[in-house]
């Protein structure tokens, strides 16, 4: 997730080894402008063993959260909660296609418009 804009990017990972994670991160994130890719925050895990190569390739440092410290990644934890609506806890994403992940990503990045209690949607529609 890009914290500044709250933009989410989901990765399709056939395997969770460091080479697969590095390749997927670089492929999925390299098109972001540098001002949006200021850093990458990750849990501690062996899948990020190539974090120096990833940081070098993307031009952004990788920060690791302390073990058992979810408050250090509050925005990520919030997104994880939203993702549970699509992918229940304990269910692996390996069975989901890249297209399905992109559809979920698009839905979360483009939520329905919210209106105040005093303004109704038809106020903004040229058809009404």
From TrEMBL:
PROSITE patterns: INTEGRASE. Keywords: Plasmid. GO terms for biological process: DNA integration; transposition. PANTHER family: TRANSPOSASE, TRANSPOSASE INSI FOR INSERTION SEQUENCE ELEMENT IS30A-RELATED. The lineage of its organism: Bacteria, Bacillati, Actinomycetota, Actinomycetes, Mycobacteriales. NCBIfam families: transpos_IS30. GO terms for cellular component: cytosol. This is Integrase catalytic domain-containing protein. InterPro entries: Integrase_cat-core, RNaseH-like_sf, RNaseH_sf, Transposase-Integrase, Transposase_IS30-like. Residues 1-128 form the Integrase catalytic domain. It comes from the Bacteria. GO terms for molecular function: nucleic acid binding; transposase activity. It comes from Mycolicibacterium arabiense.
